Amino acid sequence: MPGWISPWPTKCWLPSAPLPIWILPTGDRKLRSADHRPQACRKSFGRPGGTTTTAVADFSLDIAPGEFVTILGPSGCGKTTLLRLVNGLLKPDGGSVTVGDRTPVPGPDMGFVFQSFRLIPWATAERNVGFGLELAGVEPVRRKEIVARLLDRVGLGRSASAYPAELSGGMKQRVALARALATDPSILLLDEPFASLDAQTREIMQLELLHLWSERRATALFVTHSVEEAILLADRVVVMGAAPHSLRHIVPIDLPRPRRDEVRTSPAFIALRNELTGIIRALITEDPNSPFFNRG
Ligand SMILES: Nc1ncnc2c1ncn2[C@@H]1O[C@H](COP(=O)(O)OP(=O)(O)OP(=O)(O)O)[C@@H](O)[C@H]1O
């Protein structure tokens, strides 16, 4: 694989192949993505005073190994909660989440970028990116090589020795992305990983991510508020809405790969952008479950 080295030495375990993700009602492995079932995966949170907020409900999806799925949806509709269900930080109240053939647990085989970066404040950018490799016992020389390569790919080759407090929001976000990629995970879960970047850097990073992903083809679940970003990256765009029906639309993206900048101006891209923008707008202003129902 040109430009990408598997981080694991021979004595350590090798990363498994990209894995499927199943988010299904308990015991139903045959359900297809577009089906809606009242008992599909759901998650609620308790509130002070005894009330509950349903963050995800009626959501069923199967994601193929190596597939890139992007998630769009209005603020607060449950996108982050969905990612946290998939990485095993949260357990569903009903239904199930299966990664490969297992209930997910956070680990080096899952790369996660949190909205809040979650960098270690007392560690340099280099140490932050290499932390998972360090935990896995990858030898220092090899670790340094992998980390240097990734920092370079995210445009932070000159900031390796900087601490998080010395980095801008966009730089921290790129450190977090490099860290998620460092263990060469078979699953990538990315929660608005480019939200803090300026428009131009964001466009560069989108293509860089596509390049890195195409070398390894991890199964990717990527949350964004940008319709263009969702289309550019995805094999399928999943549109979420507010509970009780979290899964609203699944839009296949048949644009050829590899995708380059020019694709953004193609008629097919523009048609998809218009379709998805209309869907999101309708979810915000025409959905009785939306806080902005009937506005705008
Ligand atoms: N730990 C929690 N405790 C209580 N409520 C929560 C918790 N996490 C999320 N929620 C609630 O669940 C709902 C979905 O939140 P979530 O963060 O998943 O939405 P989101 O679609 O990712 O939002 P955004 O696009 O604004 O990041 C919201 O109403 C939120 O207040």
UniProtKB/TrEMBL annotation:
Residues 31-267 form the ABC transporter domain. The lineage of its organism: Bacteria, Pseudomonadati, Pseudomonadota, Alphaproteobacteria, Hyphomicrobiales. SUPFAM superfamilies: P-loop containing nucleoside triphosphate hydrolases (SSF52540). PANTHER family: ALIPHATIC SULFONATES IMPORT ATP-BINDING PROTEIN SSUB, TAURINE IMPORT ATP-BINDING PROTEIN-RELATED. This is ABC transporter ATP-binding protein. The keyword Repressor does not apply. Keywords: ATP-binding, Nucleotide-binding, Transport. It holds the Pfam family ABC_tran. Belongs to the ABC transporter superfamily. GO terms for molecular function: ATP binding; ATP hydrolysis activity. PROSITE patterns: ABC_TRANSPORTER_1, ABC_TRANSPORTER_2.
